[in-house]
Amino acid sequence: MSSISSSEYSACITTVSNDETARKLARSIVESRLAACVNIIPGVRSIYEWQSTIHEDNELILMIKTRQEFVPQLIEFVKKNHPYDVPELIELPINSGNQDYLKWIDGIVKKQSST
C-alpha cells in the first residue's frame, strides 16, 4: 500500500441543517475548486450553546478534502455562502494517506491557481 506523510492536505468539517443546503454548499465548494471532494454525512445530532440557550438539532456534516494552502479561502467561502451566522469550519491535517488519492486532490485543487 502506497502512502505519503504530509500535512499539505486537509480535511475540513462544517455542519448544515438540511440536505438541500448540504448539496448546494458542497457543489459550490467543488465547482469553485476549493476542494476535490465533499462528503455529506447525514444523521448527526448536535448539542450546543447559542445565545445563552442549549440547543439540540439534527444536522449533516460536510467533510471537505483540500490542500492546506486553500483552507483560508475555503473558510471565507463558507462564511459567505453558509446560512448560519457563525458556521463551523475546522481543519484537520491529513498526515498520511493513499498517495494516488492525494495526487488526485492536487489535480483538482491546484487547477484553480492556474486559472
From TrEMBL:
Q: Output this protein's name.
A: Divalent-cation tolerance protein CutA
A Gene Ontology annotation in the biological process aspect, one of them, is: response to metal ion
Superkingdom, taxonomy of origin? Eukaryota
**Entry's family note:** Belongs to the CutA family.
Which spans of this chain does the record mark as coiled coil?
none
Pfam families, A to Z? CutA1
Q: Name one GO molecular function term.
A: copper ion binding
Name the source organism: Adineta steineri
